[in-house]
Amino acid sequence: MISPRAKEVFIQGITSDGRTFRPSDWAERLAGVMSSFRPGGATPGSHLSYSPWCVPTSVGGVKCVIVHTDLRDHDVMAWDFVMNFARDNGLQIAEACVVPDTPPPAKP
Question: What total of structural domains would you count in the chain?
Answer without folding.
Answer: 1
